[in-house]
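To illustrate the input format used throughout this study, we show a single complete record. The first block contains the structure-token representation of the backbone; no residue identities are included at this stage. The design step must infer an amino acid for every position from geometry alone.
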């Protein structure tokens, strides 16, 4: 498989003439950048089956910092969280999401070592091809996620042709008891593993395409492909397909559409061959979310309704297509001029008693989120 992919790369390099290079480093930049946020969340939750209420408090802070010196770039992203439910839980967490050093060896070649969140895949709610990323939470898909410790070599080239850009990443991810201990392709997670991946990115005919191959020394290899294409400036299609060699597969198909009155629709369908059927869900005691074979998720957002500046309203539906249970969310956001944003929503889980969303511990909840960004 590796030989085939390398052959495709070298064939593309020789086929497309008239190439040119664009050096991003030639643009003057500040030596350092920083950003982040402080966030407070409060959930008033109604529980099943006793209809009692409880308050769930979540505090979160994120700080991103990067420093550039000649050919080197240092990037770090640190987070702190606190979760509290009276008489039930009080937990602190201080993950270091990213901490890496990147060296731009030449205009086209770079090396990276450290902890990075790769962000592979084109899906908004799910990413089947994100082999070296922690899974997204479809209820909060834009949340920052902790990366893994990796070593990465990257090659990038631009062209004046239908193939506008070609980039190749070689990634090595070890998993031991001390490094990336929570990453393992094996169910028991006790054995040390060496994991490698090659990702080929193409901007071909104005279509973003990724081809990914993942090798592991103790488990089956994986392969994946994704794409994103703007059919019109306001209409985008995307998809992903991932396959475990000699085993299961998953795929995603989605769209993003923006109307002339600034209504945005994002809709995605996910299928997993190893997901649970309706009967298996009814008999399952697993507390893991999103365990079924297939889902449909749709998010509709209207910017500045009724000409209310800095505001938006939204509706989100997540449906399990095996048992037709679902979670519905309706809310609104408002952004203040001091980089403060308030997000208020009502969320409810619906379904039969033994369905995925119907047997959730939380029946419904009111969610207030206040974020200050800097």
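Output of the design step:
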């Amino acid at each position: 498989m590796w030989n085939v992919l390398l052959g495709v790369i070298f064939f593309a390099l020789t086929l497309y003439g008239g190439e040119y290079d664009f050096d991003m480093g030639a643009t003057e930049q500040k030596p350092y950048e920083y950003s982040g946020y402080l966030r407070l969340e409060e959930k008033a939750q109604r529980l099943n089956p006793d209809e009692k209420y409880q308050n769930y408090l979540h505090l979160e802070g994120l700080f991103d910092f990067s420093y550039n010196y000649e050919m080197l770039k240092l990037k770090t992203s640190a987070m702190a969280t606190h979760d509290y439910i009276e008489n039930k839980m009080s937990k602190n967490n201080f993950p270091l999401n990213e901490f890496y050093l990147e060296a731009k060896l030449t205009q086209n070649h770079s090396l990276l070592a450290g902890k990075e969140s790769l962000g592979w895949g084109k899906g908004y709610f799910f990413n089947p091809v994100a082999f070296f990323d922690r899974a997204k939470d479809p209820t909060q898909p834009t949340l920052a996620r902790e990366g893994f410790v990796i070593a990465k070599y990257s090659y990038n080239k631009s062209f004046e042709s239908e193939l506008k850009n070609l980039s190749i990443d070689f990634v090595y991810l070890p998993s031991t008891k001390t490094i990336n201990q929570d990453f393992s392709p094996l169910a028991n997670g006790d054995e040390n593993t060496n994991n490698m991946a090659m990702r080929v990115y193409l901007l071909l005919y104005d279509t973003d395409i990724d081809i990914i191959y993942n090798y592991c020394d103790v488990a089956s290899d994986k392969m994946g492909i994704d794409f994103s294409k703007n059919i019109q400036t306001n209409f985008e299609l995307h998809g992903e397909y991932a396959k475990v060699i000699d085993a299961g597969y998953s795929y995603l198909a989605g769209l993003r559409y923006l109307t002339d009155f600034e209504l945005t629709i994002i809709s995605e369908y996910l299928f997993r061959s190893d997901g649970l059927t309706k009967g298996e869900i009814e008999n399952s005691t697993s507390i893991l979310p999103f365990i079924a074979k297939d889902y449909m998720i749709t998010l509709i957002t209207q910017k500045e309704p009724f000409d209310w500046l800095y505001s938006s309203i939204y509706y989100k539906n997540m449906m399990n297509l095996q048992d037709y249970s679902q979670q519905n969310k309706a809310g609104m956001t408002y952004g203040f001029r001091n980089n403060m944003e308030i997000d208020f929503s009502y969320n409810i889980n619906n379904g039969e008693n033994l369905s995925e969303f119907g047997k959730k511990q939380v029946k419904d909840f009111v969610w207030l989120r206040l974020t200050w960004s800097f």
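Structural context for interpreting the output: Confidence is low (pLDDT under 50) at residues 1-22. The CA atoms of residues 161 and 241 lie 27 Å apart.
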